[in-house]
Amino acid sequence: MSVNILMPALSPTMEEGTLAKWLVKEGDRIQSGDLIAEIETDKATMEFEAVDEGIIGRLLVSEGSEGVKVNSPIAVILDDDEELKVSETADLVVETEQTKSEVATEEVAEIQKPSMNAVQTSSTRVFATPLARRLAREKGIDLGSISGSGPHGRIVKTDILEINVSSVDTNQESLANPVLRTNVQQASGSSITNLYADREFKEIPLNSMRKTVASRLTEAKQNIPHFYLRKEARIDELLQVRARLNAHLAEKNNKLSINDFIIKSCALALQSVPTANAIWAEDKILQLKPSDIAVAVSVEDGLFTPIIRDANTKSLSNISKEMKELADKARSKKLMPSEYQGGSFSISNLGMFGVDNFDAVINPPHGAILAVGRGLQKPIVNEDESISVANLMSLTLSVDHRVIDGALGAKLLQNITKYLEDPVLMLT
Questions:
Q1: What residue ranges do the domains of the chain occupy?
Q2: Side-chain-side CA neighbours of residue 68 (13 Å)
Q3: Which of 42, 155, 198, 224 has a CA between 20 and 30 Å from the CA of residue 283?
Q4: Pick from 213, 374, 366: which is nearest to 293 by CA?
């Protein structure tokens, strides 16, 4: 009896993913525990193990398919000497980004009146990939009039591209309706692209990470009432202490960064102001006891925020070592969900990239995020009214006003500054 292999949920919040690579092929025998595929989520690429044993009868999703819904069938396993007929898999629908576009197009077509150059529907059932169907609609091609070159005569993308037919004209009357216009834009994705039809450009498809970043940060700016607190921290003593510690750590092949001190200072400040160590949980506020600090790490195609858990209890050396390991895993997309989910506070340090100051977007459900600019030498007025030069680093605290009020946020930022300006306090 055939058994479907379903798209796994590799994290509690995963709803869809990309089938990055198959590690098996049709006809292979597998045992429970065998690695059969690599699944890419928004944060990591993870290997997927088989639960059942048998023979791979059909791979239903091709490598590189994006937006594959959790619990949708991706392959079929057969028993020994069992054959899989085309009819047994013809009705299996794997919802990917391509099929979402197809559904959206169909929804628009139901509202619009049929036009002369609309795609004709054949009375005979035609087997075609979702992408081939979408391209056929766009080019005005009747799928029933062509033969497919795919397995069992299935029409694939290449079959459509080989036919030189002009694209389907958009119904102008429908576009005048704002509701229909929105649906058409979602279905075709060409409304903005058409504005640049006469300009040279490169189209870059969104990967799952970029989609998640866009969705979460849009949600954050729309739903979180941000306010901003700014302060400059004098870091002359921090630079001296760091230099002395690194001289001792050189023998252990270790080196502390300014970011390590920032992580530790934020962790201790949250302990000093425990009511600010909180997150928004829709109908309540959760106040955390440990200081779990998320740190933004830039990678080639997006952003990760791995978490240093219990940072208030860890030494600077341990924080430095753990941060390096997490950053390396982030860049190779090997972070486990437990390493980037959770936390109550974030740090984004663009000072290392030469940025003087900036405002960061809160990473929900965190209550605040600290934006760190670079250290600059500036003239200051001392208590005796003399003028000297000091190293000053800009700090901007973005705060969720639902969780932290102005005075509480100011107190938190004052404590962060206190530890940065007197780093010996971090060593006690």
A1: 3-90, 97-196, 210-427
A2: 27
A3: 42
A4: 366
Residue whose entry in the numeric block shows the structure tokens 């936390």: 343
Do residues 136 and 126 make contact, with C-beta atoms less than 8 angstroms apart?
no
- CATH architecture assigned to 3-90: Beta Barrel (2.40)
Please list the active-site residues.
401
Closest among 125, 113, 104 to 188, alpha carbons compared: 104
Which residue type, as a one-letter code, is found at position 180?
L
Give residue for tokens 């690579």: 21
Structure tokens belonging to residue 364: 């929900």
Q: Which amino acid is at 419?
A: Y
Regarding the domain with residue range 210-427, which homologous superfamily does it belong to in the CATH classification?
A: Chloramphenicol acetyltransferase-like domain (3.30.559.10)
Residues of the chain with pLDDT under 70: 1, 12-13, 42-43, 80-125, 151-152, 164-190
Q: What is the pLDDT, as a whole number, of residue 189? A: 53
By C-alpha distance, which of 423, 280, 252, 290 is closest to 363? 280
Classify residue 62 by its DSSP letter.
-
130-139 helix and 97-111 helix, angle to the nearest 10 degrees: 40
**pTM for this entry:** 0.65
97-196 CATH pick, 3.40.50.11260, 3.40.50.150, 1.20.1250.20, 4.10.320.10: 4.10.320.10
Query: For residue 277, which of 327, 233, 342 has the smallest C-alpha distance?
Result: 342
Backbone angles phi, psi at 238, to 5 degrees: -60, -40
- Whether residue 365 is preceded by a cis peptide bond, meaning omega within 30 degrees of 0, is yes
Q: What SS3 state is found at 226?
A: strand
